[in-house]
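Many introductory courses stop at the sequence. We go one step further.
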Amino acid sequence: MDILLYIAAGAVVGLVVGITGIGGGALMTPMLLSFGFPPHTAVGTDLLYAALTKAGGAYSHHKQKHVKWGLVKLLAVGSIPAALITGLLLHFFFTDAESYGHLLKNALGIMLVLTAIVILLRGRIQALAGRSKAGRLAHLRPHATIIMGIFLGIFVTLSSVGAGAIGTAILMILYPALRGTHIVGTDIAHAVPLTLAAGLIHLTLGNVDFFLLGALLIGSIPAIHVGSHLSRYMPDKVLRPVLATLLLTMGLRYVFN
């Protein structure tokens, strides 16, 4: 009967993602932890789940010319090496996966809190970005983008959270002239190689449960499409604060666990 529970979990997360557009990692990893999976399995499995579910969205945005590939490359220059180095450090500095479980939980808590803040302050972030001068410190943006990529590479590898909401906020702040569709498309396009690289790192560490991964995909893929159609009828102004409050509560729990 476990497989039915995991399929249902995938469907619930997929439905919420389809309705709100908020990344599944912030929901899926805490849910897997609540099912009793150890942190390394929850994070590793969710990373490959994210890579597979986001790939279709990235291709769709690419076809619609919503992806700024130059920015994707800048982010990846920082994030992919950072993910690889993080994986190597986990391998060489800890005796087994159980010994770094607390680190993964703390990183998860930090990223859940940051994600909740980004969701709650999204309007203000957009307004702040819109008021900023497009040419101000433009020469520093490539370096800042790489640094932000490094941040995402480390914390996404440790928590599976942040490639979506936090990546979007970073792009809004650094590139205020970008249209919303370009921000979303660029963020998703970068999230695919990042979550795939981090997921493969966890795979080599033995942290991926393929039975669980398959069940989650069976439930989530159709649910995402259903949620995307329902999104036009759902009160987004109510759903986002509720979801942000839930993420904040869970994040604080893991930070201080």
